[in-house]
Design a protein that fits this description.
The chain is an all-alpha fold. The chain has 19 helices and no strands.
Length: 384
């Protein structure tokens, strides 16, 4: 049971790196590789993985710094991290506006032009940028970062509650998730539908990640029979959700033989408010991944997937780069094809996108490691 508590950082980084690669190709219209990401096989996508691991990593970072420098230093570090994420959001949002603006000027017929909100930027540049700064406008891809910044900012309070009263903590999180649709209108937004990610709903994923790191004794069963029941249930959930995901992505398959009321009970699965089936699907697969971590399979994968580990380890840098790559590759493929690209053109764009992220992630990781080595080697000046 200590596998989750003591999971090596490389295993978490590998999973997060894969999720970031999925996020990149999922946001490229016409992508071929997007047909093979997690959203095609389960009722959730890489966003759930990213937010859950954000909670897990926040808990891990807090515990490590608390043990080394004390609770006060740990709280300050998380608050600084929240500010870093906010600044990263502003940078990413502005980059999305600028890249969309360039595509619009070049008359590239890519859907990213509208998704980046470049048309509003062209009409009111200053007002649009100020809306991004104020979190009112959250352009293409960048929309998960404001929520992430809020979660990290309140993490010190959440950590204290989760450690002391795990049952009350998770019950409070579920209650807030249930109330989330009625709370969404209170958030300022330039879109009538509100924030793309309702933080009152998505805090449930972050909270479960926190709890997995802080109190694994609370969430994981101790008895062998219960663990086997969990495994059997997770396999059933994963298989059922796989079948449902197949139908979800192919409505033409079920419309011919299913009664009309059946699909409306299951689909669509709103991402904004974190639909219950998305949570169930995630939990089923998460348990199976936990077993793979415990068995050492993920660790062995990480040993020969170093560049992907580096992407996960430097997730904030790679997220910004991935957002730029998504828009850039879509613009190039649509521009080359003069419309929606053919599969060979789209696949070439996918390969370039993944290669850029792998190369840049590796370069950034080596650069940061070199700086750490240089800092450790630098002699300390002792005052007389």
């Amino acid at each position: 049971m200590n596998a989750v508590n003591n999971a090596r950082r490389t295993e978490i980084d590998l999973i997060r790196g894969i999720a970031l690669l999925f996020i990149v190709v999922d946001h490229v219209n016409g992508s071929v590789l997007a047909d093979y990401t997690i959203r095609n096989f389960q009722l959730f996508d890489a966003a759930e993985v990213f937010v859950f691991l954000a909670g897990y990593s926040a808990g891990a970072a807090y515990l490590a710094m608390e043990a080394r420098d004390g609770a006060s230093a740990a709280r300050k570090r998380l608050r600084r991290r929240s500010w870093e994420i906010y600044k990263t959001f502003v940078l990413t949002g502005v980059l999305m506006l600028l890249f969309g603006f360039v595509l619009a000027l070049c008359k590239v017929p890519a859907p990213a032009v509208r998704a980046t909100e470049a048309l509003d930027f062209m009409a009111q540049p200053l007002a649009t940028v100020l809306q991004v700064v104020g979190l009112v406008r959250q352009p293409f891809v960048s929309d998960v970062l404001p929520m992430y910044a809020v979660f990290i900012g309140v993490a010190p309070l959440a950590i204290r509650w989760a450690r002391a009263q795990p049952l009350a903590f998770i019950c409070g999180s579920v209650a807030l998730w249930l109330m989330s649709p009625s709370l969404l209108p209170f958030l300022p937004s330039s879109e009538p539908r509100g924030w793309s990610f309702n933080p009152f709903a998505w805090q449930l994923m972050f909270a479960m990640g926190l709890l997995a790191r802080l109190r694994p004794d609370f969430i994981l069963p101790q008895q062998t029979i219960v663990r086997r029941a969990f495994t059997a249930g997770a396999v059933v959930v994963a298989l059922v959700c796989m079948a449902a995901a197949y139908l979800w992505m192919r409505p033409h398959v079920y419309e011919a033989w299913l009664p009309a009321w059946v699909p409306t009970m299951v689909f669509p699965l709103p991402k904004q408010s974190l639909a219950a089936l998305r949570v169930v699907s995630f939990l089923g697969l998460a348990w199976l991944v936990y077993l793979a971590v415990r068995a050492g399979w993920i660790g062995r994968m990480a040993s020969f997937m170093g560049p992907v580990v580096q992407i996960g380890r430097h997730s904030l840098f790679c997220f910004v780069l991935g957002a730029v790559v998504s828009v850039g590759i879509e613009g190039l493929t649509y521009g080359f094809a003069g419309g929606r690209p053919t599969r060979p053109v789209a696949l070439t764009g996918d390969i370039v996108a993944v290669a850029v992220l792998l190369l840049a992630g590796g370069w950034y990781g080596r650069r940061k490691e070199a700086r750490k080595v240089a800092a450790r080697a630098k002699p300390k000046i002792v005052s007389a």
